[in-house]
Amino acid sequence: MNAQIQKLYDIARKPERRIIGLMSGTSLDGLDVALCRISGSGPDTNVLLERFATVSYDDTLKADIRTVFAKIEIQFEQLCLLNPYIGRLHGQMILNCLHAWGIEPSEIDVVASHGQTVYHAPKSQHRRDKFPNATLQIGDGDHVAAETQIITFSDFRQKHIAHGGEGAPLAVYGDYFMFSKAGENRILLNMGGIANFTYLPADGNASEVFTTDTGPGNTILDAYARKFLNTPYDENGALAAQGKVNSNFLQALKTNLFFDAPFPKTTGPEVFNVHYVEEAQARSQSKDLLPADLMATLVQFSADTIVDAIKRVTREHETYHVYMSGGGMHNPILTGAIQQQLPAFSFGRTDELGINGDAKEAVLFAVLANESLAGGNTSFGNRQGVPSVTMGKVSFPR
Ligand SMILES: Nc1ncnc2c1ncn2[C@@H]1O[C@H](COP(=O)(O)OP(=O)(O)OP(=O)(O)O)[C@@H](O)[C@H]1O
Ligand SMILES: CC(=O)N[C@H]1[C@@H]2OC[C@@H](O2)[C@@H](O)[C@@H]1O[C@H](C)C(=O)O
């Protein structure tokens, strides 16, 4: 038998595994590296986040990724070259983190690598009948495994699609296993480039839980921060804080079929981008807005679409606890606009639940790999978009 298969088998039988989860999202800010110690599986999963780092992407790498990112037409050669290049780079970033932490690669059981999403196309978006939901992540797992000499799980989203999902959001699995609490209605709100939330009802019923994207989080805000401020983002919402919301423009932004579609649903910067904003400006005769007013309206757009989505699943006389994560939780203008519209809800961060909110998505992939190794027994019922499957493909280092 291949010694690597024996090794995988031994890892699967261990009472506790050390798994490095990787996530690099739609913001292209960097690679989140979360070293987790995980025991159990399914609803009995226990995660200790041992170490966490975000390895920033330099400007050249961001520019390289942007040449193929969320675009209908690209140079195919560039995509082909980036696939192994990013895999190898992510491998090197892991090794650098381990070195800084004083940990040997041989002490890690597996890597769980999300890769870099370059295109996301649910059917509702591409509208081409014969084609299924589709999504593409690059940074191939074989290169991560070869670079680190650690067995690597990757390409988590295809199995989800193969079983009728849109390939995202996958957060529901990790959130249910890590954060579900009997007797407490919880909303896990992640505000990355795209915002999403997981609904975890107090009765702990797995067939009721789901995660849905709500629309933009920071992705459009970042695009205009680059344009107006020449910075990667509007730090602490400083520019937005100086502006006034333009209601005609806001209404035009909110007019899109995505917002009326049932849950769970997904989207990406393929839809919510500068072109989307310019088109809404044209429709609402608001092309000459001051940068601050434009930014204030865009923040309100993210906040309102998050709030509207949450209101669709919650009931008036029940108590809900919202736990925030993702970079948007650091923007007080965004969080303020959300909290102001949900006065009866309590707000905190996932940090209170033991997982750093900046690390949460990277931890999710560690949990998904753990589930592929040691779990796979939880039924999420028959809801479209939450198939009861395990995810991730295995790459051996040699
Ligand atoms: N201090 C801050 N003020 C305002 N915004 C901030 C601040 N810190 C982080 N952000 C926002 O958070 C973003 C990064 O968030 P995060 O790393 O969660 O995104 P991501 O993982 O790429 O996205 P996704 O969840 O869509 O995959 C930044 O691009 C910025 O918009
Ligand atoms: C296709 C893709 O990469 N989607 C991401 C993105 O970032 C946030 C949101 O859009 C979410 O749907 C998803 O990631 C998280 C980790 C998820 O699958 O739950």
Outline of this structure?
Helices cover 38% and strands 21% of the residues.
Give a verbal description of the structure.
The protein is α/β, with parallel strands linked by helices. The chain has two domains: 3-167 and 359-395, Nucleotidyltransferase, domain 5; 171-353, Nucleotidyltransferase, domain 5, CATH 3.30.420. 38% of the residues lie in helices and 21% in strands. It is built from 14 helices and twelve strands. It has helices at 3-13, 59-66, 76-101, 123-126, 141-148, 157-162, 171-179, 219-228, 238-241, 247-254, 274-283, 291-313, 332-341, 360-374, and strands at 16-24, 30-39, 46-56, 110-121, 134-138, 151-154, 185-191, 194-200, 210-216, 320-325, 346-349, 393-395. Strands 1, 2, 3, 4, 5, 6 and 12 form a seven-stranded mixed sheet that branches. Strands 9-8-7-10-11 form a five-stranded mixed sheet. Helix 8 packs antiparallel against helix 12 and helix 12 packs across helix 13 (332-341). The longest helix is centred in the first third of the chain and has 26 residues, at 76-101. The radius of gyration is 20 Å and the shape is globular. The relative contact order is 0.17. The model has no long low-confidence stretch (mean pLDDT 97). The ligand CC(=O)N[C@H]1[C@@H]2OC[C@@H](O2)[C@@H](O)[C@@H]1O[C@H](C)C(=O)O is lined by residues 25-26, 117, 120, 135, 167-171, 192-194, 196, 211, 213, 266, 268, 361, 364. Belongs to the anhydro-N-acetylmuramic acid kinase family. One of its GO terms (biological process) is amino sugar metabolic process.
